């Protein structure tokens, strides 16, 4: 379609339009070979920005085309080759500019990100979500919760019945790849059941269903009694999986979270050679925490041994650190220390 000389152009239609979008409309409208010839001189970053804009264009209104052309040039001499954007137009232009292979890569990079499943309802209160999910099968609930932040999932679990949540946690602990067709069907079903008047928020994207790391973080958001109850269920289903989750829940670096009295109890159970190895390459905060809770003589001896110790295998260091974590876990199980003690010391009422 060509624009006539006497066309009345409403330039107000593009006054607030971004320059990139105007250029996208222009290049999508003129003959492809002309777009290629011009865009060959653009920087790669400019090409990528224009690619994204061209792909997002639907059918282009004639009046907007006219306004864009009027702003870029007083007259379009050779008419309009396209009246829409889209993947095909973007690919045709880019292929001529940078070649088909690079064009495909650029198109892939410029694809709009897919919204995270259930992102429209993650802001709904845990109690409301639990009420809705209580009517679903545990397998379905596990899929839904695996896309929520672990803390949120823990809050929802607290509102579900005991027998059901045990099965859900066991399913969550087993890392699986998501079947997105199934996820999408569940999402459509669930979103329909949630009131549109409830405030929602978006969370970061996940593409896998749960896993030990997810459950370990989930346990941080539930009270101690519920955590112990769910851990028992996991232990009965898989000792290995339960131990893996325990390892993730408290790491060597978490020693800094212990109160001074508790760290001293731990150090009484740890040998000097064990500390020498465990502290190799450790976070300075961890080393400082331990050194501050040793006697002057013990600290000096430890520092001397650390200086004299040669190269160590990473596996040796990890083994000693796990041994110390095991000591912490045993002391907690016997009630001698509390892993949350350091945090509780900061609370005043």
Description:
The protein is mostly helical and 349 residues long. Helix content is 61%, strand content 1%. The chain has a two-stranded antiparallel ribbon with strand order 1-2. Helix 10 packs across helix 13. The protein is extended, with a radius of gyration of 30 Å. The relative contact order is 0.07. The N terminus and C terminus are likely disordered.
List the helices and strands and how they pair.
Elements: H1 19-29, H2 32-39, H3 44-56, H4 62-72, H5 87-98, H6 100-109, H7 126-133, H8 138-146, H9 150-158, H10 162-173, E1 176-177, H11 180-193, E2 208-209, H12 212-219, H13 224-237, H14 239-249, H15 260-268, H16 272-278, H17 284-292, H18 296-308, H19 314-333, H20 341-344
Antiparallel strand pairs: 1-2
Keywords:
61% helix, Annexin V, domain 1, 2 strands, two-stranded antiparallel sheet, disordered C terminus, disordered N terminus, mainly alpha, 349 residues
């Amino acid at each position: 379609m060509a624009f006539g000389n006497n066309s009345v152009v409403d330039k107000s239609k593009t006054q607030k339009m971004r320059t990139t979008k105007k250029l996208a409309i222009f290049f999508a409208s003129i003959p492809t070979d002309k777009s290629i010839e011009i865009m060959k001189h653009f920087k790669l970053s400019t090409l990528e920005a224009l690619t994204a804009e061209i792909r997002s264009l639907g059918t282009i209104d004639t009046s907007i085309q006219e306004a864009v052309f009027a702003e870029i040039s007083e007259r379009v001499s050779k008419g309009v080759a396209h009246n829409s954007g889209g993947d095909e137009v973007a690919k045709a232009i880019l292929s001529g500019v940078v070649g088909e292979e690079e064009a495909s890569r650029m198109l892939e990079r410029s694809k709009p990100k897919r919204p995270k499943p259930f992102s429209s309802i993650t802001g709904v209160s845990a109690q409301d979500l639990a009420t809705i999910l209580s009517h679903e099968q545990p397998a379905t609930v596990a899929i839904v919760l695996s896309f929520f932040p672990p803390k949120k999932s823990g809050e929802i679990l607290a509102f579900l019945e005991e027998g059901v949540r045990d099965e859900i946690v066991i399913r969550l602990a087993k890392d699986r790849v998501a079947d997105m067709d199934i996820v999408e069907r569940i999402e459509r079903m669930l979103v329909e059941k949630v009131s549109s008047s409830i405030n929602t928020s978006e969370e970061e994207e996940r593409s896998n269903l749960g896993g030990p790391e997810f459950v370990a973080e989930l346990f941080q958001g539930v009270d101690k009694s519920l955590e112990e109850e769910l851990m028992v269920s996991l232990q009965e289903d898989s000792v290995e999986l339960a131990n893996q989750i325990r390892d993730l829940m408290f790491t060597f670096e978490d020693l800094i979270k212990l109160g001074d009295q508790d760290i001293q109890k731990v150090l009484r159970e740890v040998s000097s050679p064990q500390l020498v190895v465990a502290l190799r390459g450790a976070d300075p905060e961890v080393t400082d925490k331990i050194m501050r809770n040793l006697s002057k003589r013990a600290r000096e001896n430890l520092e001397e041994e650390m200086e004299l110790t040669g190269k160590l295998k990473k596996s040796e260091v990890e083994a000693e650190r796990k041994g110390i974590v095991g000591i912490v876990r045993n002391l907690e199980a016997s009630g001698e220390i509390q892993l949350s003690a350091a945090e509780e010391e900061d609370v005043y009422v």
